[in-house]
From TrEMBL:
<dbReference type="InterPro" id="IPR006439">
    <property type="entry name" value="HAD-SF_hydro_IA"/>
</dbReference>
<dbReference type="InterPro" id="IPR036412">
    <property type="entry name" value="HAD-like_sf"/>
</dbReference>
<dbReference type="GO" id="GO:0008253">
    <property type="term" value="F:5'-nucleotidase activity"/>
</dbReference>
<dbReference type="Pfam" id="PF13419">
    <property type="entry name" value="HAD_2"/>
</dbReference>
<keyword id="KW-0378">Hydrolase</keyword>
<dbReference type="InterPro" id="IPR023214">
    <property type="entry name" value="HAD_sf"/>
</dbReference>
<dbReference type="InterPro" id="IPR011951">
    <property type="entry name" value="HAD-SF_hydro_IA_YjjG/PynA"/>
</dbReference>
<protein>
    <submittedName>
        <fullName>YjjG family noncanonical pyrimidine nucleotidase</fullName>
        <ecNumber>3.1.3.5</ecNumber>
    </submittedName>
</protein>
<dbReference type="InterPro" id="IPR023198">
    <property type="entry name" value="PGP-like_dom2"/>
</dbReference>
<dbReference type="InterPro" id="IPR041492">
    <property type="entry name" value="HAD_2"/>
</dbReference>
<dbReference type="InterPro" id="IPR052550">
    <property type="entry name" value="Pyrimidine_5'-ntase_YjjG"/>
</dbReference>
Length: 229
């Protein structure tokens, strides 16, 4: 089904274009080596990834701040794998993780091809809950910054997706209307429902293949966007 009325497309960044899990895993390998932390990276990541997702949910819901997220996700993971680690080292790892995260910039399969395809026909934008200083680096170092006319991040607005304020801010910044725009992201709660709740159309990048309501537009691979545009 072609969406012929669309002029502006808003993308999430992490887990949608930028392969967060792969880049994050490589960053942990690097900083553990730097800090001589000798643990199984596989075991660590198996516990860290769900813990991190839960912390981001708390962060979206304004129940914790950025510092608590950065420290807590590491503290809880080391506790879960029964590794005794000093607070100073947790803080050091937290800082090193942010500093080195953009050392790796793997994108999801099809990212450049779909951005090239869409770029000549639509105004492309980013709406992200990620930290401002890190997200800028991700866009620049992965060589996709030039595709996007505007970038809206949660720290700029003071709220996070799915809060309506961030979507409305992004629309104003882009000089776009809800009626002619669409949001594309992987997170059902933050990206899809957040957009739909302000009557902004949305497509779920459902690469994790969760069960969705049949009324939700979804894709399993980025190149499937060609079916809509």
């Amino acid at each position: 089904m072609k969406l012929n009325h669309i002029t502006d497309i808003f993308f999430d960044l992490d887990h949608t274009l930028w392969d967060f899990d792969k880049n994050s895993a490589l960053t942990f390998e690097k900083i553990f080596k730097m800090n001589q932390v000798q643990i199984s990276i596989t075991d660590f990541l198996a516990h860290y990834e769900p813990i991190n997702l839960n912390y981001w949910k708390l962060y979206r819901e304004e129940r914790i701040d950025k510092a608590s997220l950065r420290y807590g996700r590491l503290f809880d993971t080391f506790k879960a794998i029964n590794v005794d680690i000093h607070d100073d080292l947790i803080h050091q790892l937290s800082e090193d993780y942010i500093a080195h995260l953009t050392s790796y910039n793997h994108l999801f399969d099809g990212t450049i091809e779909i951005l090239d395809y869409l770029d000549s026909k639509y105004n492309l934008h980013i709406i992200t809950n990620g930290f401002e200083e890190v997200q800028h680096g991700k866009l620049k170092k992965s060589n996709i910054q030039a595709y996007f006319k505007t970038v809206t991040n949660s720290e700029m607005v003071g709220v996070k997706k799915p809060n309506p304020l961030i979507f409305n801010h992004a629309l104003r910044l882009a000089k776009a209307t809800k009626e002619n725009s669409i949001m594309i992201g992987d997170n059902y709660e933050a990206d899809v429902l957040g957009a739909l709740n302000i009557d902004l159309d949305a497509i779920c990048f459902n690469y994790h293949k969760v069960k969705l309501d049949q009324n939700i537009k979804s894709i399993n691979h980025l190149l499937e966007l060609k079916n809509y545009f």
